[in-house]
Design brief:
7-stranded mixed β-sheet; Rossmann fold; 6-stranded parallel β-sheet; globular; alpha/beta; about 375 residues; about 40% helix
Length: about 375
């Protein structure tokens, strides 16, 4: 059973779960293949005639929703893509997964403009820049295309024209992370690793963590370290930083790739046994495996599955209701996973955490 701090809680033969997705060195190529195969499988699953829908909804056109992402091949978003597919299988919609592999904002803006000129029926976009997406979002709205922000929401509600945001309260999650760091580290050097400083899917987290640590009044020295957008690059930079700072008291990260690199570095050098504390965000298999082995102290789940599933539902409702209903601010939550609670995730694979392609019913743990 997870420590919840806040917030809510067979599509073909081509599928790659997150564990398989991470295998091998050609991550980007695997991701592109995965995205294409997923689209084909999901379209096959939703075939049943020119759109349509489940439940008592009337037959609808085969509305197409475009998801513009900043790291299209990153393993974090595997469950997000499962969520998209599951929602569109229910509703008879289709989707495109596009954007940038390496957080290049101009490529994301180009993808948005392509979606607009292609008359998409809805767009979901990670607003990772405070201003760059405002004009294309407004252009889409002016053309009758609803836009939802997911995973990242610029500088926060009201700072961009998107109709709603689906994702974690990023600054608050950083504050809670900072409080957890303070509970683990009494004093000394603490590294805060971040893949791409300034990008608004992760910068608010590091800002919140820094504030909480500074507010604690503890004698903790914070050093922010940039790791880069590629998972292998993140690992090597974290290892190099550690080799130059072996007096570190804690190593923490605000993105999945950096957290994975921290976990692997902690394991490589046996740092937890030496008293070094560690933690971060998200639930890649390497992160969970290393937690199960006792190498890191916590990781934070933000439910990426919901960040794909819910935008499809909201965009569908907007279209079918003529804009009367649909987009709604949705906090996908903050759940601390610890060594005491990680077994549930290690023992159960599912689409909801992105490490299984299989559709199945899982039994919830007892709340007693």
């Amino acid at each position: 059973m997870s420590e919840r701090e806040s917030g809510a809680r067979g599509l073909g033969d081509y599928r790659l779960g997150r564990r398989q997705f991470l295998a091998g060195s050609a991550l980007a190529s695997a991701g592109l293949l995965l995205a294409g195969c997923r689209r084909e499988a999901a379209q096959q699953a939703s075939q049943g005639g020119g759109g349509g829908s489940g439940g008592n909804f009337p037959d609808t056109p085969e509305w197409n929703f475009v998801f513009v992402n900043h790291v299209t091949t990153n393993p974090f978003f595997v469950p997000t893509q499962y969520g998209i597919e599951d929602a569109q299988a229910l509703l008879g919609t289709t989707s495109q997964w596009t954007g940038s592999e390496e957080s290049v904002v101009s490529e994301m803006v180009d993808a948005m403009n392509t979606a607009i000129s292609g008359n998409a029926n809805g767009i979901a976009v990670c607003v990772v820049d405070p201003v760059a997406f405002n004009k294309p979002i407004q252009k889409a709205l002016d053309n009758g295309i609803p836009v939802i922000a997911y995973n990242a929401n610029g500088k926060g509600p009201g700072t961009n024209p998107a109709l709603a945001y689906v994702g974690q309260d990023l600054f608050l999650s950083g504050v809670e992370m900072g409080k957890r760091i303070v509970s683990l580290v009494d004093e000394g050097l603490v590294a805060l690793f971040i893949a791409t400083p300034g990008q608004l899917n992760i910068q608010p987290r590091i800002d919140g963590a820094r504030q909480a640590i500074e507010d604690s009044g503890k004698n903790i020295e914070i050093q922010q370290v940039t790791t880069g957008a590629e998972v292998t690059e993140e690992r090597s930079r974290i290892e190099a930083w550690y080799n130059g700072h072996k007096d570190v008291a804690g190593m923490f990260a605000v993105d999945a790739g950096s957290t994975q690199g921290v976990a692997q570095t902690m394991e490589q050098f046996g740092l937890h046994d030496r008293g070094v504390k560690a933690g971060g965000y998200d639930l890649t298999p390497q992160i969970l495996d290393n937690m199960g082995k006792g190498h890191i102290d916590f990781t934070i789940d933000q439910q990426p599955y919901l960040q794909g599933f819910l935008p499809v539902i909201q965009l569908y409702l907007y279209n079918i209701s003529g804009g009367v209903t649909g987009p709604a601010e949705t906090n996908t939550g903050l759940v601390f996973i610890t060594p005491d609670t990680v077994d549930r995730y290690l023992e159960t694979s599912s689409r909801f955490e992105g490490d299984s392609e299989t559709q199945k019913i899982l039994k919830a743990p007892s709340q007693a």
